[in-house]
């Protein structure tokens, strides 16, 4: 599991690469946990995510819970049609705000500050 990070207007954008499966889920949780600061606004860019399995879904949900405990926010962006189907079937979409673009997700994080 590889992730690339950048800050856009004070929001941490994590670009998730390739697979969020049994191999990468623990690493995903560890890396994101290490980067998440108290009150952090985070956008997960899933454009390059090819596959997600139940371990990956559990990792997403675990990070959502950690965000709540940490007074942070996690939003998803650029979810492919295939990934959207998985999120819909598993009802994971209920936990996250999902946006079409990184810019929309970042803007929504900044609106919450006002």
Fraction of residues in β-strands: 25-35%
Under the CATH scheme, which architecture would be assigned?
2-Layer Sandwich
CATH topology call: Transcription Regulator spoIIAA
Shape: globular
Biggest sheet layout:
5 strands, mixed
Please name the defining characteristics of this protein:
Transcription Regulator spoIIAA; 114 residues; 5-stranded mixed sheet; 41% helix; alpha/beta; globular; single chain
How would you summarize the topology of this molecule?
Elements: E1 2-8, E2 11-20, H1 25-35, E3 41-52, H2 54-69, E4 73-77, H3 81-90, E5 97-99, H4 102-111
Parallel strand pairs: 2-3, 3-4, 4-5
Antiparallel strand pairs: 1-2
Helix pairs in contact: 1-2
């Amino acid at each position: 599991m590889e992730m690339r990070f950048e800050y856009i207007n004070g929001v941490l954008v994590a670009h998730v690469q390739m697979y969020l499966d049994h191999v990468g889920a623990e690493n995903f949780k560890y890396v994101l946990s290490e980067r998440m600061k108290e009150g952090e606004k985070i956008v997960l860019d899933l454009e390059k995510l090819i596959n997600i399995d139940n371990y990956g879904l559990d990792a997403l949900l675990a990070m959502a819970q950690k965000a709540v405990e940490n007074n942070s926010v996690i939003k998803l962006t650029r979810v492919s049609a295939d990934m959207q189907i998985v999120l819909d079937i598993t009802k994971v979409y209920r936990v996250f705000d999902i946006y079409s673009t990184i810019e929309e997700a970042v803007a929504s994080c900044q609106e919450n500050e006002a």
